[in-house]
Structures are given as C-alpha cells and as structure tokens.
Amino acid sequence: RVAALSKDAPPRPPQDEPLVGPAPEPAPGEALGWEELARGFVDTARLLGRHTGEMHLALADPAGGPGFVPEPFGKLYQRSVYQTMRNTAGKVLRRLRVEADRVPGADALLDRAHDLNERFRAVLDPNLGGSRIRIHGDYHLGRLLHTGRDFVVTDFDGDSARTVEERRVKRSPLRDVACMIRSFDYAVRSVLFGLDGRKGRAQGVIRPEDVPALTPWADAWHRRVSREFVAAYLEAMGPSDLLPHDDAGRRALLEALVLEKALHELDAELSAAPGRAPVPLAGLLRMLG
To answer: Cα separation of 222 and 185, whole Å?
Structure first.
C-alpha cells in the first residue's frame, strides 16, 4: 500500500515506539493514514496477544500438577540466564566474524558487541521479579491455525532441537512473547526482501529499487504490530506475579529475550539458509539502535 502512494509526497512513517510503556506523541505530518494502511493487522495482533496471555495463565495453573506450579525468579537463575545469553552472543559473533565477507551488515553487528552484552545485563536486576512457568517453547506464526475468525495454538511439544528434559524446564513466559515478536519480523521482511518460504514467495513482489524507501515502513509495521500484541498480552495477564513488577523490568527482559532469539535465528540461518540471514541481522541492528 505504501509503495502505491505518490512518490512526490510520500507520508512519513511513524517514529520508534517501545515494546512496553507509553508511546511518544506523533510528530506533525507523521504516519499519514497509518491506521488505514495497517488495517486489520492491529486487531489480529491484539487477538493473538490476548490468546497468548490466556495460554500462559493456563500453563501456570497449579491444578495441572507439580510440573505446572510457577517458581519465582532467583539470583542463581538470573545469573544462569545472563550467562547463557552471553555465551550465545559470543558463539554467534565469533562465527559471524569468520563469515563476515558473505553476510552484508555483519561488521555493523560486530561493532555493537558491547551494546549487546549491556542489554543482556538487564536480566541481573535483583528487583526484576516475575516467575518461571511451563511455556509453549516454540511459539511462532507457524504454530497457529487460522479458523477464519480466530486462531488455535498447536504443537505444544516445544523445540525439537532440545531434549525432553530441557523442554520441561520452566522459563519466563516472556520467552514465548519474544519468539512471536521475531516471527512478526520474519513475516514482514520476507516480503520486503522477496524471500521464498516453505509455501513459496509471498504475493506483492517488492521491486529492489523500492526497498530503501519501504524499509522504514517495514520497521514501523513490525513495531506497531508487536506493541499491540504485547499490550493485549499484558492486559490478559492482569495482576499475576508471572511477569516483572513494572514496565521498565518487563521491557528490559523482553528486549533481552528478543535479542537472544534473533541471535539463535542468525546462527541457524547461516547454517541452513544464508540468504535469509539478513532477516535476523536487520532485527538485531534495529533493536540495538
């Protein structure tokens, strides 16, 4: 829709919006017709956010047995999560350094290694709060069935790359939220970059010469859809003790988990489909500013 607008006076895309917390006031002339351009995507994102909250509340019900009783975050667990994030970053960045010549934009991420680790340090906050529960474990758009008006969540067997014991480990419910946010990014960037998926190429081919002008709009679409998804999720979760106590803690933990997920994706794409590596790489660079 944006590509079809006048090239003489294109609208300005919306400014950056945080995943959690109040949004900035729009600048004059910004995001002309944004709601019309976004149309039903916002409503769909909120529906998915509400269902995700309902899913986590069900998975945290002690009536399911000892394996479903929530457990509080603790310093030892937070240290373990932080160390795992750092190890993941170190592993992927070392690999990227070796393969930088064939990955456009690799140097930009390598230059931000310190910023990446600083974002991960947020999980060490002793006042973070929240709980660990059984989660879906492999939560993305491919795990949803669309009924026409609603969605059904499927495939609760978790990440098949992990052992059954690892899949049973209780984790922050925000890990599932982070996975879905990354899935939204794949949805929009696969179209932007003209990438083939398991079901072929998406409709509406973007001309290469239009990609620079449309990239800010792809970013804006992803930010808005993700923000609406998270807002509806938090509403559905209500006053439960499953999440960090305040918006700052929720945002810091969620952003760290999104970054970690993107690193895993980058590592996997470098092995299986190098042509898709720009998707997680662009997501990492955008989140790091």
So the answer is: 6
